[in-house]
Amino acid sequence: MEQTLTESQCGQTGSPCEPILSRDTLSSNTAVNFVNGMLPPHWERLSEYLNSLGNQELARRWKKARQIIHEHGAAFNILTQKEETERPWELDPVPLPISKGTWQTLENGIRQRARLLSLIYRDIYGNQSLIHNRQLPAELIFANPGFIRQCSGIAKDTSSELHLFSSDLIRPANGEWQVVSHGTQTPAGIGYALENRIVLSRILPRMFHSDKVQRLAPFFKHLTNSLMEVSVQKQVEPTIVMLSEGPSSPFYFEHVFLARYLGYTLVESSDLTVRNNTVFLKTLGGLHSVDVILRQVKDNGCDPLIMCSPDLTGVPGLMQAIHSGKVAVCNPMGTGVLESPGLTPFLPGLCNAILGEDLILKNTDVLWCGNPDSLNQVIDALETRSRSLTIVSAFGSDHAWAVDTAALDRDQSQTWIKTIKSAPYAWSARLPVTPFTLPAWSECGVLNRYASIRMFATAKREPETLLPGDQEKSATEIETAVMAGALTRVSDNPVAFLFPGRQKQGSKDTWCLSDKAAGFKSMLHKFSTPYEIHRGSDLPSRVADNMLWLGRYMERTEGALRLLRSLLSRINSDIRLTEIQELPFLMCTMARMKIMSQALCKPGAKFTMKVVEQEMHQSVFNADLPGSVLNCLNKIKQVASRVRDRLSNDSWLILGRIEKEMSQLRPGDKLSEIHGTINEIILSISAFAGLAFESMTRGMGWRFMDMGRRMERAAQMTIMLKSLVREPKIPAGNDLKALLEVADSTITYHTRYRTTLHLESVVDLLLIDELNPKAVGFQMASILAHVEALPRKEPRPVWSLEEKIALKLTTQLRLADTQALMEKGPDGGLPNLVHILEQIHSGIEQLADTITQHYLSRIETEKQLKLELSRTPGSGLMGRETHPSEV
Amino acid sequence: MKYKISHRTLYKYETTASLSHNELFLVPRNTSFQTCESNTVHLTPEASTRSVRQDYFGNIAINITLETAHTELEILATSQVDLLPNTAPVPSSTPPWEQVKENMVRFDSQEILAAYEFVFPSPMIQTDPLYAEWALDVFRPNVPILEGGLGLINKIFNEFEYDPRATTSATPLAEAFEIKRGVCQDFAHIGIACLRSLGLAARYVSGYLHTQPPPGKPKLVGVDASHAWLAIYIPGTGWIDLDPTNNIIPKDQHLTLAWGRDYGDVTPVRGTVLGGGNHRLEVAVDVVQSQG
User: Fold this and answer.
1) Among candidates A696, A714, A715, which has minimal Cα distance to A643?
2) How far is CA A676 from the centre of its chain?
3) Could you say which residues from 1 to 60 on chain B have a Cβ atom under 8 Å away from some Cβ of chain A?
């Protein structure tokens, strides 16, 4: 049943001469209404243009389009398993054209609904006159889990309207457009609609020039204006953030995309904190107050204090901040109740009662079982099982799940009858309806698919034209702007749009045609604005923390892999094991890095082939060893997915490649097979580092990642050097050679010192040198530069603790005298060298702790306190009280 | 009768806590029988922000934020309450419960509409035909509603065992019902679940109970805890309190703090904390009769 339109499944079939949208193709689709055998003009022009391109040209352009999609974030999927939910709507290049007349009706209809629902919201959380007057059934609200009583009283002014509203519509073949559902909490899709438009305007530019397709940009302008206007505290340059659930959200891609486009900081609950009833963003520079939150988090995930369940996430105190009027949250809290399917049958009456006009767009048929007639119809459908109805919850879409009455057996039907009868008001049913079909193009050819459109509206504000008197507008005067475009979704399944589900769907751009030619200005300039240039210190602490750890894990992995590779190249050779003198040095180093078991460092440890092979396997696959390759790569994956919005697409591609290479490692592999894969991963990690160096903005994100890398590298190098002098004697030449190899410094050494290996020269090159990028000295100098650039509260010349530590370590290395370090102790060891290595190592740990405490400790989140149980026992001591019946 | 109530909630943290948000329902409501003459809620350390608002159900909610570093948080609520003896109607004179159920659906007055809200399930109390069936042997056809209500709390009193170790504040209602054990909060929830499953309006009341020491023994300080019971709505009469834990209609020893759909709406102290490591909670309640 499911057809996927991917390149991999078919070659290019359409011949160059064959029209893309033939008359036959178009007439087989119910979306196209022929008038007296003539194609309607908007379809005519579209098919003419596409046909003039031909299949081959379209395929060529489509390839380019896929590249754009990819750049925008297709690569975001790479590190997750749930690829299809990440990008729920695959685009195809044939848009849905909508004529001017039809569009006018749709636009008016959506505008009306956005106003209507805003006013219903105000009433429900206000004086509830609609319930008192029985225009709205009490059950639908009182029993509704989406009715959040803590929101009563917040719906009083302009902040209580829907700033972002969506509506799903379908048009049955030969029918009128009708509304299926509304999105009033966190409507998804404006980002996808925008992306679709950007892609299509690139590959079919002539159509936008000539065909008067209306632009989407004004909608986003209205959205931005309305968010600025709603700011309570600051009217000028309010701080607006977009609150997302983070990578766990199926719409995270869109959140990232929109936040970049609108220029808002993308935050998660843990990035925000409430103090003095004000919301603050926890950044590296300290706490920054937030004026407006554009939320992409449902009502029940916003504030753990207003919900009972202890595992709920959110920002504690947010609701109180809203009540205090110190922050505006858009959409306002509690709007989920408006998404209830049970509300649908009452909208025509409510529209007349509230707005005094008829509902412009009709609803798809919904039966609310709270109505006795509807209940009978549903029970009848279940009893006779002759009719197909889709039973859904009467309440918000969060609580929705759907079952088709035709698919139930007798027992199931009876169970449903019992369930529905016990609380009829909690259930509703949708009547079947078949949406029209549209042609969808792929390299495989053209397919007919069912379609639905999602339209969007936002509150309309024109701050510059607002006159003083205008502020006292009457309650019904809510101005709404409708996006002049939509997200068209296509599916093989006609009922896919009737209830929320995760069926695979495609998407299309939607063109509303106007008389005036659309402006030709591209919207793309916004995307190239790097986040950190104008708001460097706004970087949330959580992001900085993850960047730091991404750098550390990257470096840790590379270090482990380089050691492993050196070891492998020795094992996979014709040299006998006993002749590899550097074996104990390499393996002890790995043990100290927790890549291998600690026993290897004990004096007298045996290095038989069996031990070596076993240990090497462990170092790759053992998840219990903190430093094993598998562990390190998993950590990279975890951390990277939390900062995906901060990494370039190319970096993502490399991470994807690393994961692919990692999946080639199998526990059963022979050591010789592992060797090649490890080489590839080392190359990929180097490529990642190179990209970061070359293409990342030198903002705080980059600084923290680089600091993580430098600290890890310095720590690793001190471990290697320490393990070189682990025994009180001068290290052997083979050990030095192996160390230079692992440190990738063999060539540098030999250009400086020809062939002789001297410990003193090696120590100078790997510990003190500030030009060798592998040396500890180099790392310390870089770290010093980083900490000096971190945001600071105290003005110069006061030095921060982390600056002092970094300066001390750097200076210590600069002042070190290599000859003194080579002085032998009474036992034949090198006490001075060991001493400085230990000092540097503990200094790095201290530095890492200090930075965490100073800049990153704010990422800790609040947890729920224990609750008192009301547990007064029955005292049996109630002698004085008597049953009234006994009086 | 005047009562002095002291309700002390103490959180002890393992390490320093730096930020804490709390919502408190610790101010006794005024009712037709009860007047809250004075109330103070004292915090140690003192809160940096304190906001007072009336919630959806008319209770006083205090929202506080602490921003100073602390290892202990003490919330001490002291109230003076004047309580008149409650007069409940004669049970046999109340209307049959089926009639009340129909009245609710019709909601002829604002008052009934307001009570109608308490017919439906709430986050902690799911309705289920199971509860209705269990209660049907006391809610026989045409039984006056208050007789049914008294029968119900009597049934809970007899069939459930008070056991503070059996449940926590997070134990689902169905589980407490299954094991027939729990504390006053569970008993109130179960009574409410039964009444709502029958189509009647019932609400959760959070408050205190003035307990008497055993004969001849002095009253111990701090041994009490907060109490909970339920109330049933009778059109024309109003809300009548019922205490399933003690199997009585509260008269002059039940002091009301707040009411809502269930415990979650009126939890006396609910909060979050930043840092602090593990924490312990200690609660001490004293209710004493005062002179004058």
Assistant:
1) A696
2) 34
3) 9, 11, 19-23, 48-49, 51, 53, 55-57
Cβ atoms < 10 Å from Cβ of A79? 18
A867 and B225 within 8 Å at the Cβ level: the answer is no
Q: Which parts of chain B register pLDDT below 50? A: none
Q: Are A79 and A655 in contact (CB under 8 A)?
A: yes
Residue B220 confidence (pLDDT) = 62
pLDDT one-digit tens code per residue, A652-693 = 788 888 888 888 888 777 877 888 889 999 999 999 988 888
Q: Which residues contact A154 (CB under 8 A, 6 or more apart)?
A: A125, A160, A322, A323, A332, A333, A334
Q: Of B51, B74, B62, which Cα lies nearest the Cα of B24?
A: B62
ipTM score: 0.93
- Listed residue (B253, B244, B258, B161) closest to B207, CA to CA: B258
Query: What is the C-alpha separation between A786 and A783, in angstroms, rounded?
Result: 5
Q: What is the largest CA-CA distance in chain A?
A: 112
Beta partners for A489?
A452, A507
Q: What is the pLDDT of residue A211?
A: 61
CB contact under 8 A, A875 and B211: yes
Residue A861 in tokens: 């989140």
Q: Is A874 on the interface with B (CB under 8 A)?
A: yes
How does strand A487-491 pair with strand A505-512? antiparallel
Report the candidate in B226, B1, B281 with the shortest Cα–Cα distance to residue A870.
B226
C-beta of residue A553 within 8 angstroms of C-beta of residue A643: no
Q: What is the pLDDT of residue A476?
A: 45
For A633-648, write each residue's pLDDT tens digit. Answer: 888 888 887 787 777 7
User: Is cis: bond before A33, omega within 30 of 0?
Assistant: no
Alpha carbons within 13 A on the beta-carbon side of A308: 19
Average pLDDT over residues A64-85: 52
User: Could you give the percent of chain A with pLDDT greater than 70?
Assistant: 85
Quick one: pLDDT at residue A825?
87
Q: For chain B, say whether A316 makes contact (Cβ under 8 Å).
A: yes
How far is the alpha carbon of A792 from chain B, nearest alpha carbon, in Å?
21
Scanning A624-670, the segments in alpha helix (DSSP H) are 629-642, 649-663
Residue A511: pLDDT above 80?
A: yes
pLDDT band at A799 (very low <50, low <70, confident <90, very high): confident
CA–chain centroid gap for A667, Å, is 32
A145 touches chain B (CB under 8 A): yes
Distance CA B248, CA B242 (A): 6
The structure tokens 């858009």 sit at A330
Q: Given a cut of 60, is residue A403 above it in pLDDT?
A: yes
- Give the gap in angstroms from C-alpha A393 to the nearest C-alpha of chain B: 15
- Residue A728: how many other CB atoms lie within 10 Å: 14
Residue type, A415: T
In DSSP notation, A538-607 reads: G-BHHHHHHHHHHHHHHHHHHHHHHHHHHHHHHHTSSS-GGG-TTHHHHHHHHHHTTSS-GGGGSTT---
Helices vs strands, H then E, count in chain A: 28, 22
Choose, out of A302, A869, A883, A887, the residue to mutate when testing the contact with B (most B CBs < 10 Å): A869
Share of chain A above pLDDT 90, in %: 38
A110: part of which helix (H) or strand (E)?
helix A100-124
The DSSP result for A258-295, as a single string, is HHHHHTPEEE-GGGEEEETTEEEEEETTEEEE--EEEE
Cα angle: A675, vertex A677, A680; to 5 degrees: 115
